[in-house]
Write a structure and sequence with these properties.
The protein has 235 residues and is an alpha/beta fold. The protein has 2 domains: 142 residues, Rossmann fold; 68 residues, SIR2/SIRT2 'Small Domain' (2-Layer Sandwich), CATH 3.30.1600.10. Helices cover 34% and strands 20% of the residues. It contains 10 helices and 9 strands. Strands 3-2-1-7-8-9 form a 6-stranded parallel beta sheet, sandwiched between helices. A 3-stranded antiparallel beta sheet has the order 5-4-6, covered by helices on one side. The radius of gyration is 18 Å and the shape is elongated. The mean pLDDT is 96. Bound molecules: ligand BJW and zinc ion.
Length: 235
């Protein structure tokens, strides 16, 4: 822990990748833990465009349930520690796979939301895209063309926004230190960023409750709750 503290302190360029585990202590369920199933459906099934075309009611029920739950959640010590790190770092990019907006709420500015944001909706037909924090109907319709809206998030088999992946790859390739926090390291392309950063010379650090496929690859694997570890790492 002391070594990692010194490395973080001395780093010019910091890149951080976060996942659902960083929001767990805010009361947000993770995707693949014990609480990962929603009504017996897996994330791989619900976060999929084919399921949405077949059963839009089911997918919207899942997202409306999460929106309602998230409306009561606040950033935790892990989000705040990362915001404090950005405030003191000479250069830091926070890449998050989370769609909950909690990093912004904690005061982080330089954030890339790799998988979108649950508080935005977009039309399945036209170019309508809007932030919407209201309670949505069971099947929300586009105010512009009347067709079905969907959450502005990235589902399996869909490409990340153009430019987003490029910025993440650039940040990982040029980082002095690359940290992953609270991610199972299973979902691509985010899962490969630690390896990429290491191959380009970054010191790599993983902070996670459980071991992951990246644990053997990184230079430092710190096992525990993100809030507890980040609190110590970023005083
Ligand atoms: C704590 C904690 C605490 C708990 N403190 N820690 C190459 C090889 C194989 C497959 C692919 C590949 N390239 C692409 C694919 C296909 C696919 C993929 O990765 N599949 C895998 C399942 C194998 N990827 C894609 O389709 C991506 N698109 C793409 O690559 O386009 C090009 C392409 C397409 C097709 C083929 C080839 C190329 C898009 C992926 C989109 C993922 N979307 C979701 C839903 C977003 C919207 C929403 O939120 O509803 O993103 S799925 C879900 O998983 C969500 C998450 O962001 C993502 C990652 O999950 P995360 O954050 O890691 O959460 P968990 O639950 O898995 O882990 C939490 C961890 O925290 C655990 O380890 C706990 O221990 C820990 N923890 N409490 C610290 N307090
Ligand atoms: Zn429309």
């Amino acid at each position: 822990m002391q070594t990692v503290m010194a490395l973080v302190d001395g780093a010019e360029r910091i890149a951080v990748l976060t996942g659902a585990g960083v929001s767990a202590e805010s009361g947000v369920p993770t995707f693949r833990g014990e609480d990962g199933l929603w009504k017996n459906h897996r994330a791989e099934e619900l976060a999929h465009p084919e399921t949405f075309s077949r059963e839009p009611h089911l997918v919207w029920e899942f997202y409306n349930w999460r929106r309602s739950l998230l409306s009561k959640c606040k950033p935790n010590r892990a989000h705040h520690a990362l915001a404090a790190l950005e405030a003191h770092a000479s250069s830091m990019l926070l890449m998050t796979q989370n769609v909950d907006g909690l990093h912004h709420m904690a005061g982080s500015h330089n954030v890339i939301e790799m998988h979108g944001n649950i508080w935005r909706v977009k039309c399945t037909r036209c170019t309508y895209l809007a932030e919407d924090y209201s309670e949505l109907p069971e099947l929300p319709k586009c105010p512009s063309c009347g067709d079905l809206l969907r959450p502005d998030v990235v589902w399996f088999g869909e490409q990340l926004e153009p430019g987003t992946l490029h910025s993440c790859v650039e940040a990982a390739a040029h980082a002095d230190i690359f940290m992953t926090v609270g991610t199972s390291g299973i979902v691509q392309p985010a899962a490969s960023l630690a390896d990429l950063a290491k191959r380009h010379g970054a010191v790599t650090v993983e902070i996670n409750l459980d071991p992951t496929p990246n644990s053997g690859l990184v230079d430092f694997s710190l096992q525990g709750k993100a809030a507890d570890i980040l609190d110590k790492l970023i005083p």
